[in-house]
Amino acid sequence: MAKPKLTKLGILFANKSVNQASISRRTGISKQKLTALATQSTDRILAIEIVSIALAIDEEPGDLLDLLCNHVQIKEDTKVDGRRKRGKGPGK
């Protein structure tokens, strides 16, 4: 049976030899949820879960957030003459 592909969190768990059952007991996050977070890139993680997991594995919450979300980018703001471009919406 092939091993499931790991997410960034799953790779971190593997590198730190994290015991998910222990993390589950310490954080209140179910083992099933931890497994899903470690193997399913479509599973969403809450900010409180990031903080809880980080504290349980002796990581800084901000460092874990950066690791998990370093791919996130925002779109360039469109401005006209230094002012925000206004769209035509209801009532305009």
User: Could you name the CATH topology of one domain?
Assistant: 434 Repressor (Amino-terminal Domain)
Name of the CATH architecture of one domain: Orthogonal Bundle
Total number of beta strands: 2
Helical segment tally?
5
Major β-sheet, in short? Answer: 2 strands, antiparallel
Secondary-structure map with pairings?
Elements: H1 8-15, H2 20-27, H3 31-39, H4 47-56, H5 61-69, E1 79-80, E2 83-84
Antiparallel strand pairs: 1-2
Protein name: Helix-turn-helix domain-containing protein
Domain HTH cro/C1-type: 8-67
Organism: Chryseosolibacter histidini
Describe this structure as you would to a colleague.
This protein has helices spanning 8-15, 20-27, 31-39, 47-56, 61-69; strands at residues 79-80, 83-84. A hairpin with a 2-residue loop joins strand 1 and strand 2 (83-84). The relative contact order is 0.14. Helix 1 packs across helix 3 (31-39) and helix 4 packs across helix 5. The protein has a domain at 8-65: 434 Repressor (Amino-terminal Domain) (Orthogonal Bundle). The chain is elongated and about 55 Å long. The protein is mainly α and 92 residues long. This is Helix-turn-helix domain-containing protein. Residues 8-67 form the HTH cro/C1-type domain.
